[in-house]
Amino acid sequence: MTSSLLPTYARADLAFEHGEGVWLTATDGVRYLDFGGGIAVASLGYGHPHLLAALREQGEKLWHTSNLFKIPQAEALAERLAAASFADFVFFTNSGAEALEGAIKTARKYQSACGRPEKFRIVAFKGAFHGRTMATLSAGGNPKYLEGFGPPLEGFDHAEFGDLASVEALIGPQTGAILVEPIQGEAGVRVGAPEFLRGLRALCDRHGLLLVLDEVQTGVGRTGRLFAHEFSGATPDIMAVAKGIGGGFPLGAFLTTREAGKGMVVGSHGTTYGGNPLGTAVGGAVLDVVLAPGFLDHVAKAGARLKQGLLALKDEHPGVVAGVRGEGLMLGVELRPPVGEFVAAARAQKLIVIPAGDNVARILPPLVIDDAEIDEGLRRLSAACAVFDAPALSEAAG
Ligand code: PLP
């Protein structure tokens, strides 16, 4: 069947029409257990009553007014995000890439507002993923994604993730900021050690740089903390979030301290849709749930149970699972067979997992997952592993 969608994705031949909790129902009525959460987006699963109520209530009142007017829902959400984080100010966007664009602009503008416009360069990291706009592709530096799109945006230097010396070697008179994911998601759930993140903070302080964190995938409860940088105690100056903050509604944001945001004044930045009443009403409802007492503890406990189960899987299927990594409900299974084949084998067990770099399958279930669902997912993963065990077993038998 041909499609009029621009063919930039190799899509699975599978479509869903309904979701409930951590379960998705395909158009043929078959139910799938979703360990992908729409790539870490469906933080509260599908059809969460509190989100639906907020969406319906705001949807019936007013969707959009533009940022030419005050938006009480955005004001309220910004105030709560600031109160729960290091930040003084929040700018809402519609996606992660836009949140990163704003964060990058804010960092550059800060140095310029300080009288150092030459300090526009940013140290970013190999393996990083920050989005698909030209600036965020340039920040990510992945040659595969940049190929054919002309010169990347000037001003990004790429260090080795986890290697402070490689960062320091790149800091020069034009460097103004460091941009990093606390856990590199697309690269294969590569966890930045707390001492690495604290080391980056120290380098920033020593060299007058801003620390910009990309918490698009790690943020808003995914790791069992509201933000992943809390594990390290390394507080950023600017941070981008998206994905889980909208629970499926396209919503992102960048957050900044008053000082780091001081270059961003009337006219410095804008968006038509960003922070509209509908999106920020839904974002507020997500935060109600994520910040409710006990919720983040639940994520941490669920993550620990899942990780333990994955480690058991490694013992059971050493020829398939090479390792397990990650925090909370952002986990990665290092595979021996090609990840694409494993993702397909999991799908045959009616389980969704997400491929990533380093031959890793990402496990990013909705944060509301319960113990029985975790155990069911582990059973399905074990069955997927068995597909790859089989040839070795039959060889041994034969
Ligand atoms: N930053 C990180 C860490 C991401 O994982 C992603 C998306 O996967 C982005 C930025 C880009 O977000 P979006 O696809 O919403 O533009």
Summarize the amount of helix as a percent range.
25-40%
Classify the beta-strand content into a percent band: 15-25%
Radius of gyration: 21 Å
Average pLDDT works out at 97
Structural class: alpha/beta
Order of strands across the widest beta sheet?
4-12-11-10-7-5-6
How would you sum up the global shape? globular
List low-pLDDT spans.
none
Question: Could you describe the largest sheet, including whether it forms a barrel?
Answer: 7 strands, mixed
Distance between the termini: 43 Å
Which molecules other than protein and nucleic acid are bound?
pyridoxal-5'-phosphate
Tally of extended strands? 17
- What is the string of helix and strand elements? EEEHHHEHEHHEHEEEHEEEHHEEHEEEH
Q: What is the count of helical runs?
A: 12
Question: In a few lines, what is going on in this structure?
Answer:
With 398 residues, this protein is α/β, with parallel strands linked by helices. The chain is 38% helix and 18% strand. Helix 3 packs parallel to helix 9 and helix 11 packs across helix 12.
Describe this structure in words.
The protein is α/β, with parallel strands linked by helices and 398 residues long. It is built from 12 helices and 17 strands. A hairpin with a 2-residue loop joins strand 13 and strand 14. Helix 2 packs antiparallel against helix 9. It is globular and about 65 Å long. The two termini are 43 Å apart. The site of pyridoxal-5'-phosphate (PLP) has 15 residues, from helix 4. The site of pyridoxal-5'-phosphate has 15 residues, from helix 4.
